Amino acid sequence: MIKILAACGAGVNSSHQIKSALEEELSNRGYDVHCDAVMVKDVNEDLMKGYDIFTPIAATDLGFEPGIPVIEAG
């Protein structure tokens, strides 16, 4: 399973749109995928360890190196 973390400023609208779009499209292409949507301010190194890909709505300075691929989804 591919685990994806989507993030936006409020963790409500944009990140949930990213989540829905990625889950639908990747599932249609035959991938087993799970995506969670959160607020950017809640993203930390421990949280990031549980995911394979990070998809923020825009370039984000997290204050640490994510250690996983980052794909801007905005």
Automatic annotation (TrEMBL):
InterPro entries, sorted: PTS_EIIB-like_sf, PTS_EIIB_2/3
Keywords: Transferase
The Phosphotransferase system EIIB component type 2/3 domain, residue ranges: 3-55
Coiled coil: none
GO terms of biological process kind: phosphoenolpyruvate-dependent sugar phosphotransferase system
Record-level Gene Ontology MF annotations: protein-N(PI)-phosphohistidine-sugar phosphotransferase activity
Protein name per Swiss-Prot or TrEMBL: PTS fructose transporter subunit IIB
